[in-house]
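Hi there, hope your week has been kind to you so far. Would you mind checking whether the tokens look sensible for this chain? I owe you a coffee for this, so here goes:
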Amino acid sequence: MASYDRNFTDELRTRLSIVDVVGRRVPLTRKGQNYWGCCPFHNEKTPSFSVNEEKGFYHCFGCGEHGDIISFTMKTNNMDFRAAITELAAQAGVKMPDYKPRDPAAVAREESYVGITDRAAALYQAKLFEPVGNVALEYVRRRGFTDDMIKKYRIGYAPKNNLIANTFANTKQDALIGTGLCRRGDYGMYDFFRDKLMFPIFNARGQIVAFSGRSLDGSEPKYINTTDTEMFHKRKTVFGLNFARDAIYRAGRSIVVEGQIDAIQMQCHGFGETVAPLGTALTEDHIAILCKSNRNITFCFDGDGAGQKAASRAASIVMPFLRDTSDVRFAFVSGGKDPDEVLKTGGADAMRKIIDGAMDLTDFLWEIANKNYVTSTPGGQAQAEKFLSAEIDKIKDEGLRRAYEKEYNSRKFNQWSRWTRKKKEAAVALPSVDEITRGTLVYIVNTFPELVERYGDFLATLNVDYDGAAAAAQMDATMAERYIVSLKLQKYMERLAAEKKECMAQMLSGADLKERLAAIDSEMEKVRAKQDMLVSA
């Protein structure tokens, strides 16, 4: 029997949920961690057919049938292996490769790659604790990494020389190049990573397949990753998943953050279910991999524009993966911070509040629609409705799709369909002084900044545009200050006069305001005295 390419069948198992594949033929109901239905391989009335999405297999407790998506497709459709994977490839939207027996040389090549990357990680970690790695070690400790964390995640340092190329000088050059650790130049092999803090990247089996290097001198790009190789593809790699898999199962969800350091710090501070995309924007492959473990996902991004954009993209990508049991949420870290900073300043409790306060996917899409379109107008409403409809159409579960439509129709009726156009009047803040006074004030503001500091609150109440030049006035700082004080007293006198007029009007209606009127008259006398003093000074 021919040995077929394990990489492709593994990709099918990664892309396709066994719940989706089995659910096409068998109605399933979730109970606990498993889905249950009546076995398609023997007649039964009480469901004994169990499907485990995380592990990717089905098992019937009645007849003993057991298998994965490939065996299920073969048995239920009476297909051979090739026909089954052809159908599954069509469901996954991937191209069928030209099948041939697995090349023993390719198997040996991959094993040699893993051997090189594992030894390279050990070399990098050793350098981190040598004098040459002092700067990197100081940096990573300053970021809150303990020695135990460094050892667990095998963090290291790539020096400026050709450590890997020299260490593996007797190794075939093609093997080194195949790992992405070295490249061939005009003068021989040279290291791809130099003067970088090194984060190993593990596959699902815990093998090191690539590296991510962080600059230490502030240069850009901040991170560089191993380029795609035979055993590593950034679009299909979720950073930290090998450590997070059990925690995701226990927590019943995964948390997705933006970067490696954030993911590690979250895992070490009580959020073991945290992972991150690697070097690329979130992809469908990332979501498919996470949904294999659990369809409950909380995206936790920075609250800036880039974080909001990443969240919108995540919401759009996750829609086809939704089921009626899914719980997808969006949390944002505000104040220009990231999860690492929150954990250092506020601890796990502060981070937990952010995660617990995450917004539901339904509300998040509604918020996007209302932010991006002017829903107070019919045209804006139409645009927003098209956006929501396009997102809802991505949902494969028909019942869930109808539920989303019903929810948004209710919101549109209650919030959009009841708008009324109100006549708007232009609100223009006119200066409260004449043009000559305005010109004098502009000259004073531009000439005597110390007076602006002293009388800024008053000057701001005049609604004067102080920008631009003004004709020169013959006054020094003392005269300028007297001018401002005089104007201030004048405005105060105007307010008192207006208040006195209002009191007299109320007295004609029978109100007893004699004491208040006397107080206003007394205050006006004081203002007049101050004005006289300014004139005589």
User: Anything to note?
Assistant: The mean pLDDT is 85. The chain is about 50% helix and 15% strand. The radius of gyration is 35 Å.
